[in-house]
Specification:
Elements lengths: L6 H10 L6 E5 L12 E2 L9 E2 L3 E4 L10 E9 L13 E5 L11 E4 L15 E4 L9 E2 L10 E3 L7 H9 L4 E5 L3 E7 L3 E2 L10 E2 L2 H11 L3 E8 L3 H11 L4 E5 L9 H6 L5 E5 L2 E2 L3 E6 L5 E5 L3 H19 L4 H4 L4 E4 L11 E11 L2 E6 L10 H4 L4 E5 L11 E6 L4
Parallel strand pairs: 5-6, 12-15, 12-16, 13-14, 16-20, 18-22
Antiparallel strand pairs: 1-11, 2-10, 3-9, 4-6, 4-7, 5-8, 17-19, 19-20, 21-25, 22-23, 22-24, 24-25
The chain binds adenosine monophosphate and magnesium ion (MG).
The site of adenosine monophosphate has 19 residues, from helix 3.
Length: 413
Amino acid sequence: MSALVPVAEHLERVLRATPLLDAERIPLDEARGRRLAEDVTASVLVPPWDNSAMDGYALRHADLAGGGPVTLTVVADVPAGSTADPRIGPGEAVRIMTGATLPGDADTVVRLEDTDRTDPLAPLPPTVTVLVTPRPGMHVRQAGEDRKAGDLVAARGSLLTPTVLSGIASGGHRSVLVVRPPRVAVITTGSELVPPGTALRRGHIPDSNGVLVAGLVEDAGGRVVAHRHVDDDPAGLARALAEVGGCDAVVVTGGVSAGAFDPVRRVFAGSDDVAFTSVAMQPGKPQAFGRLPGGALLFGLPGNPVSAWVSFHVFVRPALLAMQGAPARVVRPMPWPLPAAAGWGTPAGRAQYIPVTLSAGPDGWTVRPVSSGGSASHLVASLAGADGYAVVPAGHGHVQPGETVPVHVTNHD
Ligand code: AMP
Ligand code: MG
């Protein structure tokens, strides 16, 4: 029997074989969920103009220098979006609304509340009396205060979330250079599997890994370009692989063990391109990984639903993220140390990846296994309650109640 390979070592093997995909320029409003292929810097000042932070009166601070109250002549109105730059002479002011560009002659804004003209809906008054003595520059937002032209707005590899997209939009861009999403094929294997919802004949079970893996691919920024099921028939699997081998990755579930009918094993027996590895984790021990003739990375995950889910998170998701240029902290995310609400047993000699639920108690967050059956990898319906998985290192022994364990949160709902 071959020695168990540590999880980190198998992951490095996967990442070494993972290419960065090429880039394409797309409109900002189609870019959510993609990753930047280049640093994006501001092409304009943010904000672009000195502007008012308040509804009030823009004036020359020198007019107030002697102390108040001071009455000024109101010479114009400047609403937001106005392109006007009215002249303001000594002893004059303009009424200005929040976000409106500050006239070049003004240097300070006084709020409506700090004048005798507090009603914003009133017609433009002939004069205004200023009741306070503000500091120079009060209530003025400076052009470029947030970013100067050329300052970084979002780094290469950033996920384009709504907030990142809004930063890029305010930096003056209408399109972004992003990495093309990985094209992924999903193949489930197993003669016992039937489409979900089909009446079950003796020995049949619903194919639940299909929707599971397809969803995980999309969550990782990939596109599912083919979704197949094959029986435990090596020739059928070989045909399916030949059809999809030109995409970026193929994720196969089931059939990687040494069982009599395991089709992935049988298709790649003796292959130099696909290796079968026993990884020191539970569940998830049997893993196939390699490259298909068309160039696609091949992931052969064990078929037990919990094993497939864990293996996807530990090996496939990092690869899909690396293909998109995600930064290291995303490819190898940091777990959160959280206390265990209850103790549980662990396997000998292998790291345990156990689905857990989070709960908020009076003393903060705790985790507990989703199933009293531990990480029993066939408990597919219990997996629906998982908020993430805890990782207990090999050789750790029993987890004690109250002990802190590293947790990867996968459910953000
Ligand atoms: P295998 O890795 O093919 O030996 O499968 C291990 C276990 O996972 C068996 O009990 C299978 O019935 C089950 N299994 C395999 N593939 C799926 C799937 N797509 N959906 C649900 N269960 C599966
Ligand atoms: Mg099988």
